[in-house]
């Protein structure tokens, strides 16, 4: 050993080990593999096509282990690597980049048969993600601000749905009754007091049905029966330098 294994059609005996679980931990430079058997494993595990390379025989024969662990380096043993950049567009690939290696679990160290298993192990990384972002209500007197950086200008933004006629009312808590008057309140805090704000592209949805547009891309109210026009308050206090708010019409809420 090592010598190229013979390939035969055989039968799997009742006392032959069975793979119970394969666990893979992905790192940038290697793949960490852990394989659990139900009985002591006396066979050999190697990267496909690299049986003659001792560095690529990850588990030598007659180990008798129930739990085997090994690492496959990124540039060895036939590991293939994909680029995270699209070759045509030059842009980041939404499918991400990956490394993969095919391992062979051979139960007899000298004979390869139909009961041996080949597993392709792939680790994938993504260079960017696309997500929809929505504001959750914040307590005005205890702001958890979301900071957006604009070329050196720092803005803190927050949003609330208040009961009754805001923007100085209490935040909604619990179940809201149909027809209850509510107020949408949005604020920005600008330390230099040089920014104004425009609310646009606002929708309401429950996460299941189609979103209901409330404000279009120009900041105009789409459903005037449901929602009134936005009004503004400057110098709202410590919470905001500008606040925009609109009342939901009670009988349509």
Automatic annotation (TrEMBL):
InterPro entries: CUT_N, ZP_dom. Residues 25-253 form the ZP domain. Pfam families: CUT_N. It comes from the Eukaryota. PANTHER family: CYPHER, ISOFORM B, DUSKY-LIKE, ISOFORM A. This is Cuticlin1. It comes from Caligus rogercresseyi (Sea louse).
């Amino acid at each position: 050993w090592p010598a190229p294994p013979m390939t035969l059609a055989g039968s799997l005996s009742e006392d032959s080990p069975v793979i119970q679980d394969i666990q893979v931990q992905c790192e940038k430079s290697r793949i960490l593999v852990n394989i659990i058997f139900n009985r002591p494993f006396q066979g050999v595990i190697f990267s496909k096509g690299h049986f003659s390379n001792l560095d690529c025989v990850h588990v030598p024969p007659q180990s008798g282990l129930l739990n085997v662990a090994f690492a496959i380096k990124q540039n060895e043993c036939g590991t293939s690597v994909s680029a995270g950049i699209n070759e045509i567009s030059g842009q980041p690939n939404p499918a991400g980049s990956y490394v993969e290696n095919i391992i062979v679990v051979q139960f007899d160290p000298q004979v390869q048969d139909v009961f041996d298993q080949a597993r392709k192990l792939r680790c994938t990384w993504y260079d960017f993600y696309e997500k929809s972002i929505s504001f959750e209500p914040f307590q005005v007197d205890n702001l958890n601000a979301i900071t957006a950086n604009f070329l050196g200008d720092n803005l803190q933004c927050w949003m609330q749905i208040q009961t009754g006629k805001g923007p100085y009312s209490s935040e909604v808590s619990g179940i809201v009754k149909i027809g209850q008057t509510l107020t949408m309140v949005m604020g920005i805090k600008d330390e230099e007091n040089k920014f104004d704000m425009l609310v646009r592209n606002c929708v309401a949805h429950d996460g299941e049905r189609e979103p209901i547009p409330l404000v279009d891309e120009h900041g105009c109210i789409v459903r005037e029966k449901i929602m009134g026009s936005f009004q503004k308050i400057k110098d709202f206090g410590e919470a905001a330098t500008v606040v925009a708010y609109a009342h939901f019409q009670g009988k349509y809420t």
